[in-house]
Amino acid sequence: MLELKNEHLFDAWFTVCPLAELLPVGNGGWGTRVIAPVTGGSFQGPRMRGTARNLGADWFLIRPDGAFVVDVRILLETDDGALIHTYYPGIVDLTEEQTAQLASGIFPSMIAPVHTTPRFETGHPKYLWLNRVVGAGIGEVDTTLDPPEVRYSVYALR
């Protein structure tokens, strides 16, 4: 049996637009799609650090079964100028009450766990190793703040 190993890549803090500025696409058959633009943030780890450009969003989906599915595309910029396209699906673990609020069109004030699987894409020679990383991110989404914040610890699976 193989053992799951990991390497800590970075911790991240991202801000999204205020809840009043979310972009509701509506129910397209797979659930209710809402776009939450990422407005900034930063990341820091042993091999890389930098900021999140104000370019990207979470195209999240609230499925009919109550699952809150994350679908994020953002652009990270390292302190030494590398651009890293970062994308990740995931799940926000909601309570039954939070799911009911979302189903009725109310975005709840909450701190909820989120689990993601980040992937990276860059052409910068120093960070080409990221193109082969499958990541695991654990964190929380905090809509009690204005603007809301998402905090992650991101690991490379080895």
Report on the structure:
It is a single chain. This protein is mainly beta. The protein is 5% helix and 57% strand. It is built from one helix and ten strands; from the N terminus they run ββββββαββββ. The chain has an eight-stranded antiparallel beta barrel with strand order 1-3-4-5-6-7-9-10. The two termini are 14 Å apart. The mean pLDDT is 93.
Tally of helical runs = 1
Helix % is under 10%
Strand segment count: 10
Radius of gyration: 16 Å
The major pleated sheet works out as: 8 strands, antiparallel, barrel
How are the strands of the biggest sheet laid out side by side? 1-3-4-5-6-7-9-10
Q: Would you tell me the structural class of the helices and strands? A: mainly beta
How much of the residues is beta strand, in percent? Answer: over 45%
Which series of helices and strands comes N to C?
Answer: EEEEEEHEEEE
End-to-end separation? 14 Å
Please tag this protein with its features.
158 residues, mainly beta, eight-stranded antiparallel beta barrel, 10 strands
Describe the secondary-structure layout.
Layout: E1 6-16, E2 23-27, E3 32-44, E4 49-62, E5 68-78, E6 83-92, H1 96-103, E7 111-116, E8 119-121, E9 135-142, E10 149-157
Antiparallel strand pairs: 1-3, 1-10, 2-3, 3-4, 4-5, 5-6, 6-7, 6-8, 7-9, 9-10
Describe, in short, the structure shown.
The protein is mostly beta strands and 158 residues long. Helix content is 5%, strand content 57%.
